Protein: Transporter substrate-binding domain-containing protein
Amino acid sequence: MIRLLPALVLLLASAPAASAQTAPPAPSGGDLRVAVAPAPPFVEAGTDSTWDGLGVHLAREVGTQLGRSVQFVRADDPVAAVAGGAADLAVATMTAEDEDRVDFTAPFYSARLGMARETGSGIAEVAKRFFSPTFFKIALGLVVLLFLIGLAMWGIERHEDENEIREEKAGIWDGFWWAGVTMTTIGYGDTVPQTTGGRALALVWMIVSLAVTSALTAALVSALGIGSGSGGGASFPDDLRGERVGVVAGSAAEAVLAESRVTARPYPSLAAGLDAVEADSLDLFVDSVPRLKVATSETDRGLRVETTGFEYERWALAAPQGSDLREAVTRAVLERVQSPDWPPTVARYLP
Structure:
């Protein structure tokens, strides 16, 4: 008996470690109640009280994997329904505030921030942006730079008797003209520096002009929106500067814009904001790219959606804090989103 004690102690000591490596079994019994609120394309309410959408589809597949039938429960606040015990899971966006009330599973979709604006014709849109504050700022900065270079050239060349830059008023204008044609590499040759100092300045200006021209071209292309087609990329928050921007009141997008110091008009709903864009009361409306695309495609609006590189929100399933259900659901979600047929499923629901 004494010889068996060491083996018995070793067996008891290894038991907790083995159980720690084994994931808890999925809870079973009864329907899996999932709280949802309409949020296309993740949660869509049908006319016959049925539910659909990417999040709803995932919840059904998770229930199948856990061996439980799924019952969807409509809730104004799905996260509150889970926290209050009215539901076992919820399809919702992940936020730091809600993390204090529930436990989120791994996210199944990350949405970027987007902008919806009128499609219009490319020529008309570029012409409209010629009168934007951004374009005037670029033009004014260029004029000031050319004037300073021209003034410096006149200051150097005005004592040279054989130079046309010698006269005060005409000479300053000739210096301005010379700076412009030199920067654009046109070089008509009607105004040429004669002094050593003038030629040294000309050499420096020709080298600097290479960088100025490149920066100017990029700034003008951005300011005029050339090459930004439907679904194209947009720079956040630079592309919102000087625009009439709308956002859903109280939304996360409103907080993001405020943090980025972008002035935005609040609207009661996404539809109201898109109506304002079509009525030319707004230049663009900011929200989640999937929601913007669904809203613009379903109503056949003449709007295009531009995607920014800013990650806006993550969608996940929420479970009660401390619930064993979270571990099983997280594994089911990860297996589903890592499967080869998940991208086609996403493409089916997202325009």
